[in-house]
Automatic annotation (TrEMBL):
SUPFAM superfamilies: F1F0 ATP synthase subunit C (SSF81333). GO terms for molecular function: lipid binding; proton-transporting ATP synthase activity, rotational mechanism. Gene3D superfamilies: F1F0 ATP synthase subunit C. This is ATP synthase subunit c. Keywords: ATP synthesis, Cell membrane, CF(0), Hydrogen ion transport, Ion transport, Lipid-binding, Membrane, Transmembrane, Transmembrane helix, Transport. InterPro entries: ATP_synth_csu_bac/chlpt (IPR005953), ATP_synth_F0_csu (IPR000454), ATP_synth_F0_csu_DDCD_BS (IPR020537), ATP_synth_F0_csu_sf (IPR038662), ATPase_proteolipid_c-like_dom (IPR002379), F/V-ATP_Csub_sf (IPR035921). The record marks E54 as: Reversibly protonated during proton transport. The keyword Transmembrane applies. It holds the Pfam family ATP-synt_C. HAMAP family: ATP_synth_c_bact. The lineage of its organism: Bacteria, Pseudomonadati, Bacteroidota, Flavobacteriia, Flavobacteriales. Belongs to the ATPase C chain family. Signal peptide: none annotated.
């Protein structure tokens, strides 16, 4: 019976991390469409932010 809250919590963590990474990717594509000359800087910032979100998601999964 105590497993159900852990499973639900893990699911919410994964969904939240996926939504965050998706939002970063979408915003980066919009920014690159507006300023193609800055695509390198935008991609670098996007990858760093996505990696940080993914790391926080993994830490939260191990904590639950």
């Amino acid at each position: 019976m105590m497993e159900i809250p852990k499973i639900v919590g893990a699911g919410l963590i994964v969904i939240g991390a996926g939504m965050g990474i998706g939002r970063i990717g979408g915003s980066a594509m919009d920014a690159i469409a507006r300023q193609p000359e800055a695509s390198g800087k935008i991609q670098t910032a996007m990858l760093i932010a996505a990696a940080l979100i993914e790391g926080i998601g993994f830490a939260a999964l191990f904590a639950s």
